Predict the 3D structure of the following.
Amino acid sequence: MQQKVRSRSPKIIAGALVLALAAGAVWWWQARQAAQAPQYRMAAIERGSLAA
């Protein structure tokens, strides 16, 4: 009986591909969240009566 010697490179390539896809998904998610962040406007406060 002879055992077949399997190369590890397909598993390494598949693992690297999965990691690259996961990193891309995290980057996309972070960029999407930053684009949806609320924008605030600042103004100086003055004393006086309130108007609505």
About this structure: The longest helix spans residues 9-35. The CA atoms of residues 19 and 25 lie 10 Å apart. The helical segments are 9-35. Residues 10-35 form one domain.
